[in-house]
Amino acid sequence: KIFLKLENTQFGNSFKARGANNKMLHLTPEEKEKGIITASSGNHGIATATIAKKMSLPAKIVIPATTPQKQIDAINQYDAELVLYGPDFPDAEQKALELASEEGKAYISPYNDSLVIAGQGTIGLEILEDFPEVEIVLVPIGGGGLLSGIATLIKNINPLTEVIGVQPVASPVWYESLKAGKLIEMKVKETICGGLSGNVEKGSITFPIIQKYVREVILVKEDTIREAVRLLWEKDNQVVEPSGAVGLAVLIENKKRFNSEDIF
């Protein structure tokens, strides 16, 4: 059996609000007064801007200059200060970290933060509450916050459940890093999975977590990801961005391997 965790139905159409909300609820009064800064390839920025507005916090969102206009418009509607910088997420992330240091503001990392990771981990709790017998959980991986949270939760409650990371073959940073036993930087190719592309912040706490709890990262092809997006729309009436469809892409490319397990 295959089950879908439909985080695309969350506000902002992604899971990102879970981690951002948890982090921002733990800000000190002084941090709240100064405001927050974050970097995003899109979805984390939307979630952070939304929550900041609800909490009446000044927010600055740094995103790549190549971010789709739809996501730029979504962030702008929440009155955050938007900074477009660099061609891809690692450039925007570095700029946001510099601004946070210069301005003395709290940085809301999309992944490299224990509170953000804990927020994302609530997905794992919900999976086990509904299907405690689940055998395999396939999780997209970019910076690693989502996979770190889900894997930590699930493996500590049900060690027999296998948690597997998934990323596009065009950006195999985690696949190669786990093989090397350390985070590596590498040149990545263009991919339709913007949220899963690029290198990871040096010293990220996500690496030792994933190294401990995740044995495998599977790479999937661009054409298969497109096919997964199409199938989710045609068969389930779900509008899912490519980064969220990589789990189904794994099943398409590995039908013999995953033909009997209960999979999320």
TrEMBL record:
InterPro entries the record matches: Ser/Thr_Dehydratase, Ser/Thr_deHydtase_PyrdxlP-BS, TrpB-like_PALP, TrpB-like_PALP_sf
Domain Tryptophan synthase beta chain-like PALP: 2-261
Keywords: Lyase, Pyridoxal phosphate
Keyword Lyase recorded: yes
GO-annotated biological processes: isoleucine biosynthetic process; L-serine catabolic process; L-threonine catabolic process
TM stretches of this protein: none
PROSITE patterns: DEHYDRATASE_SER_THR
Cofactor: pyridoxal 5'-phosphate
GO molecular function list: L-serine ammonia-lyase activity; pyridoxal phosphate binding; threonine deaminase activity
UniProt record similarity statement: Belongs to the serine/threonine dehydratase family.
PANTHER family: L-THREONINE DEHYDRATASE CATABOLIC TDCB (PTHR48078:SF6), THREONINE DEHYDRATASE, MITOCHONDRIAL-RELATED (PTHR48078)
Protein name per its UniProtKB record: Tryptophan synthase beta chain-like PALP domain-containing protein
Top-level taxonomy: unclassified sequences, metagenomes, ecological metagenomes
